[in-house]
Design a protein that fits this description.
By secondary structure, this protein is α/β, with parallel strands linked by helices. Helices cover about 50% and strands about 10% of the residues. Bound molecules: zinc ion.
């Protein structure tokens, strides 16, 4: 059984291609973080190698070893592949050595025990140009027993020549009802927590499951929201103090900025009277206060600034500078004692 949820169109297509023996040699799975790209890639690896009639059965030894990451014919490649453990923390790209040693050389040999050798390249956008060009050699003349699966959140960062050699699938956000059902089944969480997490997930099932398994998640998100909602009333010095105490981990900052974007999106929805579709359903009063303070163009401009900041984070721009610019770009409103707001 396929473990992938909410991507029936892709699963149906792949099942049919395997049945008819018309698989592509390379697949590109595109979608936001935690939407289910890796689950789908592992499903496909199982479906290709499972020995049961209704592949992927999920029960046979092959299926189980693939899920555990212990099958010799299913190889995961990421930015840490082939690196010494001491180098891993600062590794920013998938090296040519990883592609040459593991994909190019490995694919020239027949499968050890399965039917196909499957290479799953996670965060494929992190391949260096040299690594991409090396991969192209395998993509151009793929051995018949090899299937490559590239996963990416940033398709635009891949070489067009790589994209054009892959069968491309875009994973859609998983429907809310499916996420709610899975959360209820797996974790037995309180109904209001299930509702909040599924709303906050934005259709990314993996994210919802990870957050449900981490009790500190909702608390730290609440703290982040508390800090952010008051920033709008703060002056430049106070904002500067705030950004100085933020962590220097780019990934954490990117997550904080994504939270701010989701907040601003909700404020817009409130302004458009679409309260029922907001994500931050536990903070409606704060969202309404923001909606009362800000105009639609002000919110949209700030969202543009946030998107630019996230893009700059990816390009290794100076972290402190990015945050300083954001604090300058963020609209400022003065809160009065009678709780009416006016622009300053
Ligand atoms: Zn099986």
């Amino acid at each position: 059984m396929w473990q992938t949820a909410g991507q029936e169109h892709i699963v149906g297509f792949l099942t049919e291609s395997i049945l008819r023996n018309r698989m592509a040699h390379a697949y590109l799975l595109v979608g936001p973080p935690h939407v289910g790209k890796m689950t789908l890639a592992i499903d496909l690896a199982r479906a290709l190698n499972c020995t049961a009639e209704n592949a992927p059965c999920g029960i046979c030894r092959t299926c189980q070893r693939i899920v555990q990451g212990k099958h010799p014919d299913v190889v995961m490649i990421d930015k840490n592949t082939g690196r010494d453990p001491s180098e891993r923390k600062k590794a920013a790209e998938i090296s040519i050595d990883a592609i040459r040693e593991f994909v190019q050389k490995g694919s020239s040999l027949p499968p050890y025990e399965g039917k196909y050798k499957v290479y799953i390249i996670e965060d494929a956008e992190l391949m260096s140009v040299e690594a991409s060009n090396c991969l192209l050699k395998t993509l151009e003349e793929p051995p018949p027993h090899v299937v490559l699966i590239l996963l990416t959140t940033e398709e635009g960062a891949l070489l067009p020549t790589v994209i054009s050699r892959c069968q491309r699938f875009e994973l859609k956000p998983v429907p809310l009802a499916v996420i709610e059902k899975r959360l209820t089944e797996i974790h037995g969480l309180a109904p209001e927590r299930v509702k909040l997490l599924s709303k906050l997930s934005g259709g990314c099932l993996g994210w919802a499951l990870l957050s449900a398994g981490d009790v500190s998640f909702l608390k730290s998100r609440e703290d982040r929201v508390d800090e952010f909602v008051t920033l709008i009333n703060k002056n430049w010095d106070e904002r500067l103090l705030y950004i100085q105490q933020l962590p220097s981990d780019r990934q954490v900052i990117a997550e904080i900025l994504e939270l701010w974007i989701s907040w601003c999106r909700d404020v817009l929805l409130i302004k458009y009277n679409c309260d029922e579709v907001v994500a931050n359903i536990d903070r409606i009063a704060d969202l309404k206060a923001w909606a009362g303070m800000l105009t639609v163009p002000e919110i949209k401009d700030f969202v543009d600034c946030l998107n630019t900041a996230i893009a700059n984070l990816l390009y290794n721009a100076n972290l402190h500078l990015i945050l300083e610019v954001l604090m300058l770009d963020m609209p400022r409103k003065e809160k009065r004692a009678d709780s009416l707001y006016f622009a300053v």
